[in-house]
Every structure is written in C-alpha cells, then in structure tokens.
Amino acid sequence: MRLVWAYLLVWIPVSFAFELLSALSSLAMRGLPAIVELAVHALVAGLSVAASRMLEGTAPARFTAAASAVAANGVVAIQSLYWTVLPRDIPPGSRTLRAVLDVAVMVFLLLLVASARRKSRETP
User: Fold this and answer.
1) Distances (CA, A) of 105 to 58, 60, 71
2) What is the reported pLDDT for 124?
3) What angle do CA 75, 79, 82 make, to 5 degrees?
4) What would the DSSP string read from start to end of 88-123?
5) Mean pLDDT for back-to-back runs of 10 residues, the chain (124 residues)
6) How remote is the C-alpha of 76 from its chain's centroid?
7) What is the pTM of this model?
8) Burial of 95 (0-12, 13-18, 19+ CB in 10 A)
9) Is-contact 3 111, C-beta < 8 A?
10) Which has the closest alpha carbon to 72: 29, 102, 27?
C-alpha cells in the first residue's frame, strides 16, 4: 500500500503542480474551458491527498477513498490525452500507448487496494 500512498500523496499533486505552472501563462487565452479543466484536476489532486492521508490511519472508508482517487486519476489521465485545452507535450502517435499504460497503472493500483482491503478483513 506504500506504493498507492506515494502515488496519491506525491505523484498526483506534483503532476498537478507542473500542469498548473505550464498552463498559467496562457490561461487567459485558453478561457473558461481551461479554468474548468484545471479546477477538476485540482479537485482530483485534493481527493488524492485526502485518500492518502486516510491510508495512514484506520479510517473505515480508507480503501474506498483510495480506489476512488486512483480511478479519478485514471479518468483525468485519459481525459488529458484526448480532450484537453491545456498544453500537453505528447509526441504524435503515442497517445494510444500512453492511454494503455495509464490504464495498466490504474488497474495495478486498484488491485493493490483490493488486496489490502482483503487482508484487512482477514486480520482481526
């Protein structure tokens, strides 16, 4: 679960920070769609941090929160590849491979969360 915790607490907020910094200078030109997209990505990053903090304790909903955050980040990753108004540095022809890798990471992390949930139910 440390991998899921690090992904949610470090990787996602840092990725969002880089996304915000790269879009900030052109935000006025990109308009309301960019602001809405950044706001949604900020909410998902916030959910990720909250879920990671829940994983540190014994909150009853910690696994549900972690799975929700991982799934939300998977959706944001795919959305950012295909339907974005924010600047992206994706080489031509690599979107499909990147999408497959993003889905694979999401599935792997969700399997880790499910495994931890099962183990927590087995131990009294």
Assistant:
1) 25, 25, 10
2) 62
3) 145
4) ----TT-HHHHHHHHHHHHHHHHHHHHHHHHHHHH-
5) 95 96 93 95 98 93 97 96 88 93 97 95 75
6) 7
7) 0.91
8) middle
9) no
10) 102
Predicted confidence at residue 52, as pLDDT, reads 97
Residue type, 63: F
Helices and strands, counts by H and E, the chain: 6, 0
Q: Which two tokens stand for residue 69?
A: 């955050």
| Distances from the Cα of 99 to the Cα of 35, 70, 79, 88, 103, angstroms | 23, 15, 9, 14, 6
pLDDT of residue 37: 96
How far is it, in rounded angstroms, from Cα 42 to Cα 61?
22
**Structural domain spans, the chain:** 2-122
- pLDDT, residue 10, reads 97
